[in-house]
Amino acid sequence: MINKRRLLIANDASSLGTGYGVYGRELLTRLYNTGKYEIAELSCYLSSEGAEELKKQVPWTIYPNAPSVTDSDEIKQAYHKTQINAFGSWRFDYVCAHFRPDIVFDMRDYWMYAYQETCVFRKHYKWVVMPTVDSAPQKGEWISTFQNMDLVIPYTDWARRTLKAQCKNSINMFPSIVNAGVDLDVFKPPENKKQLQAELFGREVEVTGCVMRNQKRKLIPDILKSYRAYLDKLLEEGKTEKFEKSILYIHTTFPEASGWNLPALLLEHNMIDKTYFTNICPHCHSVRITKFHEQPVTCKTCNKIGTMLPNAGRTIPTKNLVTIYQAFDLFLQVAICEGFGMPQAEAAACGIPIAATDYSAMSEIVANLEGYPIRVAALFRELETEANRANPDGQAITQIIYNYFALPEEERQEKSKRTRALCGQHYSWDACAEVWDRALSSVDISSNVPWDSPRSPYDSSVPIPTDLSPQELINFITKEIIKEPWLAETAGIKSMVKDCSNGYVIDRNHGARGVGMESIIKTLEKLLNHKANMEELRVNHQELDKMVSYYA
Ligand SMILES: [Zn+2]
């Protein structure tokens, strides 16, 4: 009998409705059903209580990452000590030692999995990542990490081309792209759109819609401005009946710490009466469509106060989201960049033609769905990411909306059917999982150091020679003391050498500060102690069983 490959994924918990959560569940379900894998999930944002519930629904092993309500304050404080703990950093090594994976895989943003690069158990498993490449160029530090992955799986063809152009053959990239999928049985067109719109809005309407988190890269100001220009154009041409029918729907979150100031923007563009939002009651979870209101209002279902726009902790059920898509006539994806932009595929599955910024993955998706690419007025370099981002042409957005709603009804219906059919062709979870399965099967795990091998050596008694350069110091300590020379090639340590050679490091919040060799020694000392502790646990596996909470 062939041993099943042991896969560990660190991801948003499969029970969560987030983009990563949904992707993970759809993928793991299919990988599990091949019968080829033993699977474990390090479930981010999930505590033991949630894990117990999730375990009733899925057959794979769950390692909850968030502290449980019964955990001590000390544990809770440890979790909140650094942001990356929420992504699994604080439990990852323990889970690795306990589950003993052949392959660890991830599909999130760079800063969510970067910690895995220096995992003390790195030689015991292969590391496979699908990076969310959303713009070009990618940071040098990221490329350096990609080079240390055993396999990089491109998300989209745009990602594949971007990585190829920048890395040439320095990364091991899987030849096929994986994409994402959408469930066509859940996301589907309404029986009767006109009737649904009349029920939801109380009259005949033509709806331009978008679904997005309220964040910097989603261009809510441009959407409002372009839609206002469309309305003004209708008025200029005396099309008052069309003007009355025309509404903008923004399904978004509010308030958000780093989000757009919706009330100010609505006021600025005279859009308060023309824009609709989704509201949810935190008590009975009933969902309503209303114009904007900043303060919580009384719920018409349960009469309690608190109904507001959704946010990360107040999300709406999928069935309500589907109804919202179904009420749209045209879908807009207006952002400076996207790694994929799932709402485009979900809207398309509901038979809604899409318009999207002609940049990054959006270019590819809008082309695949034969939608309306929004011309980019200019690319600009963003300071934080050092990447090119797109500034879409507002007049082009206005023109696309105008042209679409000028189409005869039959043509719009044809377009709707075609959009859904194309979505089914390009974005199916089965096809996506099939590529993942091929990729994960292709990885050669024969060179993995066995999990039950003897304790890996280290020697803290070796004296460190003086007069070494930062690079020589790193090489010496990783090779002679920690005895893990590969650490010197990891992105974090490489940037430490660079900072140390320069004599300063840029701290985003506090500006430049001096940095010396002692910081290298301190960091490596921590790694050494960590290795000593973790090796102890790895060889005393039974100890670990008491320490790690899991649901198998
Ligand atoms: Zn309520």
Overall description:
With 552 residues, the chain is α/β, with parallel strands linked by helices. The chain folds into three domains: 5-181 and 433-442, Rossmann fold (3-Layer(aba) Sandwich); 193-427, Rossmann fold (3-Layer(aba) Sandwich); 470-547, no CATH class. 42% of the residues lie in helices and 16% in strands. The protein has 21 helices and 19 strands. Strands 10-9-8-7-13-14-15 form a seven-stranded mixed sheet, sandwiched between helices. A six-stranded parallel sheet has the order 3-2-1-4-5-6, with helices on both faces. A two-stranded antiparallel sheet has the order 11-12. Strand 18 (504-507) and strand 19 form a beta hairpin. Helix 1 packs across helix 17, helix 9 packs across helix 15 and helix 18 runs parallel beside helix 20 (517-539). The two termini are 22 Å apart. The model has no long low-confidence stretch (mean pLDDT 95).
Side by side, the strands of the main sheet go 10-9-8-7-13-14-15
CATH topology of the largest domain: Rossmann fold
Tell me about the largest β-sheet: 7 strands, mixed
Which small molecules are bound?
A: zinc ion
Which shape, going by the Cα principal axes? globular
- Count of the separate structural domains: 3
Radius of gyration: 26 Å
Low-confidence stretches: none
Question: What is the name of the CATH architecture of the largest domain?
Answer: 3-Layer(aba) Sandwich
Mean pLDDT: 95
- The CATH class of the largest domain is Alpha Beta
Please give the count of helices.
Answer: 21
- CATH 4th-level superfamily of the largest domain: Glycogen Phosphorylase B
What's the end-to-end separation, in Å? Answer: 22 Å
The residue fraction in helices comes out at 40-55%
- Number of E strands: 19
Structural class: alpha/beta
Beta-strand fraction estimate: 15-25%
